[in-house]
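Work Package 3 (structural annotation) set out to generate three-dimensional models for the target panel prioritized at the project kickoff. During this period the team completed the workflow that converts sequence records into discrete structure tokens, so that structures can be stored uniformly alongside our sequence database. As a representative example, we reproduce one entry of 137 residues exactly as it appears in the project archive.
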Amino acid sequence: MRFVHTCIRVRDPEQSLRFYRHLGFERRGRLNFETAYNMYMGLPGDGDTLELTVNRDRDEPYDLGDGYNHMAVAVEDLDATLATLAREGIEPEKPPYSPGGRDDVGRICFVRDPDGYRIELIDGGDFATPQDPDVPS
């Protein structure tokens, strides 16, 4: 088995494409349906891991619910990425920080895409998720 993609629904495809391109995603292809279409994106050297679904004639914002939290993207240079996004009017929820004050996990921050989806930006392109030893609950 392997992970294939994450799908999110977007209202303004051009605005969403621009946002995800600033995070390093490349547009790969499109699949058309009668009432919607999918735009596939991926990071260099990776598969088409992001599917942006556009429902035709959708004007209302999507209800993101309380189950979705975020997706994470490791960026080569967090400060440079934030500067690029700032030129597009996209600001982080709060300044970059080290989760839990732990220097061993590096800096992160969260931004929102044009539809309100939270994206965690992780400083450093060669990122591995830190793990603590299992502790009995």
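The longest strand covers residues 26-32.
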